[in-house]
Inverse folding.
């Protein structure tokens, strides 16, 4: 008979826990509803133009920064000046200078001095 009594007591405890759980869930739902902000309705489809304009512009690349400095200079710029202005290391600056020269984006005014095209 003790097993039957234990099962009845356990059943009673489970029902009590269920009621407590229901009360807690209602309280949480009520709290969430009071804190919820009204949501905006979102359009079902966006046109490609809207999507493109919504994206942020990517930060300028190292090559872009160096080309910008070179193009602003009328007399030309040398590698040590670019290193000081950009903070890039010597290898990076020299690689960018070599690549952009080969691409035809800059010219050598004289040895070590570069100007924009």
């Amino acid at each position: 008979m003790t097993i039957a009594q234990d099962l009845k007591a356990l059943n009673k405890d489970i029902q009590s826990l269920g009621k407590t759980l229901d009360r807690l869930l209602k309280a949480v739902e009520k709290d969430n509803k009071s804190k919820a902000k009204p949501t905006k309705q979102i359009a079902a489809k966006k046109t490609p133009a809207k999507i493109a304009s919504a994206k942020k512009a990517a930060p300028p690349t190292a090559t872009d920064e160096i080309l910008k400095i070179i193009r602003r200079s009328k007399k030309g710029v040398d590698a040590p000046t670019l290193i000081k202005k950009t903070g890039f290391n010597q290898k990076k600056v020299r690689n960018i200078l070599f690549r952009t020269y080969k691409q035809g984006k800059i010219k050598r005014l004289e040895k070590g001095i570069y100007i924009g095209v």
